[in-house]
Amino acid sequence: MKAFMHGFTGFFRGIEFSLHRFGLWYFIPLILWLVLVFGLTLQLSDFLLSYLFDFINYTTGIDLSNPSALSDWTEFLKFSFQWGLIIVVYVFFWYVLSRYMKYVVLILLSPLFAYLSERTEEILTGKTYPFELKKLVKDSIRGAGIAVRNLLIETVFIVFCSIISFFFPLFSPFTLTFLFLVNSYFMAFNFFDYVAERKRMNILQSIRYMRANFYTLMGFGVAYNIVSFVPLLDWVLAPISAASGAVIVDAELPNEKNSFTFKDKLLSSNIDTTKLLNQE
Questions:
Q1: Are 153 and 207 in contact (CB under 8 A)?
Q2: How many CB atoms lie within 10 A of CB 73?
Q3: Which string of DSSP letters, residue by residue, matches 177-236?
Q4: Using CB atoms within 10 A as the burial measure, which of 119, 158, 235, 280 is most buried?
Q5: Is the pTM of this model over 0.90?
Q6: Contact at 8 Å (CB) between 215 and 6?
Q7: pLDDT (tens digit per residue) in 6-55
């Protein structure tokens, strides 16, 4: 429970830290949010509505795209149905894009998150990392790759839980809770991997680091998702705050679990194992 609360409160300390030091950077995900959500919502909704109007006109003879084509007494019914359909379609795409495209944000803004994670560590520890474009590109590619990996794994869980809920509806509350926790863990994973990568952990070492701090990451991810329930905050506030919060939480982990010593522990473990094999 202590590890869970450490991760949970660490995320909110990341909000305070990033708001004071990286406030202007919040405009970048805000602009991306406006472009993707508003732009795609309008484009996809208009695209779908045009086909729906054509389908209704073909099957019922009611031309929803032409108000003057109906008599006065049916005008109100037509108008109500038309706008009801428009609202449903727009709300649907808005929900889907705003909730599930957060992985797109993680992928597209991985260079920003890598930079902010590094800057946070420099501020906290005083250790400086000279800017290297090659390193930033490498960190960004890895961050995007981790986001894709986690998205694919989470998708498998979603499909599996959906099948269970379909055949056993009573299990739905449990599967929804399970999926919330799965998403929480993977969202935290995405941001803690920037810390692990900076310590030159490879993917397998990073996974072991995450598993060693499972409950801490779970608490961090739950806090992230609680904030993400508020529209706009899930795209603008949460990701940048998480980039800083992961560094803060990692720096306060016990010596055997934080990124500063975890890789050394893994390497020494590998050396000991090699010695034992040689002795045998």
A1: no
A2: 7
A3: HHHHHHHHHHHHHHHHHHHHHHTT--HHHHHHHHHHTHHHHHHHHHHHHHHHTSTTTTTT
A4: 235
A5: no
A6: no
A7: 999 999 999 999 998 888 888 888 787 777 767 766 676 777 767 777 77
